[in-house]
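Q: Can I see a sequence and its folded structure?
A: Here is a first one.
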Amino acid sequence: MSFFAFSRRALAAAVLAACSAVIGPAGAADDTRILPAPVRDEPAGNGPETIVLAGGCFWGVQGVFQHVRGVSSAISGYAGGDKATAHYEMTGRGDTGHAESVRVTFDPRKISLGSILRIYFSVAHDPTELNRQGPDHGTQYRSAIFPMNDEQAAVAKAYIAQLNQSHAFPGAIVTRIEPGRAFYPAEAYHQDFLALNPTQPYIVINDLPKIENLRRLFPADYRVQPVLAGGGRS
């Protein structure tokens, strides 16, 4: 296990000890809200569609979308940099251009791109935090959407503008739209991390509340059994 993964666990353990007496169960102080549906969306297609989303540590983002109906695959990885630096230890330095990301493959006949983005902004992360999420800091934890085509980019851009104009969040959304970037799957030990380690302190504090918020706010899109990656690099 890398130094960065160990540091994450050590930090989470310290935070858990310090905060458990203050806020009680994980998520008790959460102020997550359901957001309006996008005004602009894609027409339903016939085949599977893929989009890459970044919003902090990929463990939680992957975990959220593994519990979404209509998602057939959610793979943790890296996007925004070169293939040569698409490794956890290198990305952890914060100077590779990569963001910890998740490649989400979904059936647009069952769930639209707009619904995927609505879940992404509502429960998967806080899109107003610049280059950080929770205890994780650096450009590798930035909020970013890596669209696969112009239509995806247009839908994402329109939704960000809609949310900003309606003041859906106290602050401005800082999510970047970064087209034309390749995605590289992460190491095997990062895949299905939330599902395989539900009692790990970092997961308990930062990520399990996201799964609960998904179940609570989007019951029609929630499924109990996650679709697992079951592997690493391809």
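Q: Show me another, different protein.
A: A second, unrelated one:
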Amino acid sequence: MSIIGVIVLTVSRSVAIFLVDAGLLFEEFFARISRLVIPAFAFVTFYSLIVILFASAYRLISVYTAGPHFYVGGAPSALSFSESIYFSIGTISTVGYGDIIPYSSLARVLASLEVFCGIMLLLFGVSELLEYAREHRQDRLRK
């Protein structure tokens, strides 16, 4: 028992220092993240808006135009709104699972346009987040 006591006594200082250092790192991390909440929220909002707009377009062409525009599970089908949202998220993220396939030229053009918008949004969004963080860092250094 005394051997365990000696080990705990010798290691406890190192453990305490580690815990304090970890706490300081987490405090700095959360302070940095809190400065990025507003631009990140704006990015997610704009991303969601694009997903909903394209999903609405997919739903509208699927229901209100003649001919099959999408294949769902290998068969031509009109998309429900939930399927349109699912397809839009898969398309803008460039994942494209392949369970819903744009069949008509109009659907393919819309899907291609959405991929382009998604890539541009990611490029400009990440660029703006980094710029926002850099400006705040410079402001903090000036103070």
